[in-house]
Amino acid sequence: MGTTPDELWADEQNWPLRPDGYCFLVPAINRIGRHLFADEWRDDFPCDEFFTAPKSVGEADANTRAWAHRVLNVILGDRYTPDFVEGGRSIADLSSGFLASLAPLGNLDSLASEDTQTLDRRERGYWFDAEQWQTFRNYLHYKNEQKKPNLLKVRRAAEWLYNRVFDGSIVPYVRHIEGGGWQVSPPDDWQMRTPEALRQRIRYCRLVPGKPAWPSGNHWIFIKIDELDRALDVEALAKRNPADEFDAAPERGDGQEHAKVEVPDGNLKAAPLTDTGLTTEAVHEAHHADVNEIYDGRATALDANGRPLRGKQLAAFIALKGAFGADLGKYLVNADRAIKMRRWVLAQKPRPSGLDRLPAKDKDLYRLFNHVDKKCF
User: Fold this and answer.
1) Would 164 disulfide with which of 103, 170, 290, 375, CB 3.0-4.6 Å?
2) By the 8 A CB rule, do 182 and 191 touch?
3) Which of 36-45, 141-150, 252-261 has the lowest mean pLDDT?
4) Closest CA to 182 of 233, 152, 220, 141
5) 286, 302 in Cβ contact below 8 A?
6) 134 vs 299: CA distance, rounded Å
7) In angstroms, rounded to a whole number, what is the distance separating the alpha carbons of residues 74 and 81?
8) What b/e string do you get for 29-56 counting C-beta neighbours within 10 Å, with b at 16 or more?
């Protein structure tokens, strides 16, 4: 536990041993940070910390006061006169044994009175008046405001991981810092009190199993590389492909060829089967067509009324059918459908360009699922 955050985030040699297929939390967070912020991210952001100092100088330790001396010496220059105390014995130090040893020297009461008048009861080090101490604290506030944007980026990266832990797409593993067996870190271990406590956990790369309130601890944190890859790819796919572009794919000549079916514009009521010229059996057969046949145009995706699906609804139908089969996963909650569907899309090699343009935001994807369900069932 002696490894400091500065050491962890500065040198890979300070990272704990991990088996193939796993990465330590440090490179995982840096990958997430670069994914979220690109060139604005620096790998040393997570080890940084806000400056703190107590409200009164009397509560500060010697190291903090020495730091304040260096700051004030630069800020105030000639206007600053250091008040350094060499340290003396307080009245408490003049114990009865010490005074007794001086008995041959004369009147003890007089001696004690004269000595204690010259003794400085403050401990050794630099001391400051209230105005100087407030100047030091103002300086720390100024520096913290400069740090805040970078530390907020770290918090964002930590929250990204937190959300993936809770949706099950990333399952962290932990191991005691002294070595030993591996164990899963369940979502309950990540139910921190505040986002700042979560950032602290990322900074130290440690936790205590079963103690979510503790930002640090005695177990190192590791992430499965393939789970991290998949989670980053899913989000990169969503960011890269705005939903509005999908409808333009047939006009550009890319996407599925069968998506070029001529359908009048406007909001049309669902037509009876007799109007489409298709029997119930034909619609059922089209609905259960192999997804690969839909890809290459050998089959057409139809809604429950026999009308061809197109645009974003066609993309969602194909992806849901590939991930879940003919029922499109309609009995699952949309959040679970989205996760499995996106994983299926990423696994397609080569990936049809139409699928690359599914909605980026979950709420838009859920709305699209609902539209497809209403049309197909």
Assistant:
1) 170
2) no
3) 252-261
4) 220
5) yes
6) 76
7) 12
8) bbbbbbbbeeeebeeebbbeeeeebeee
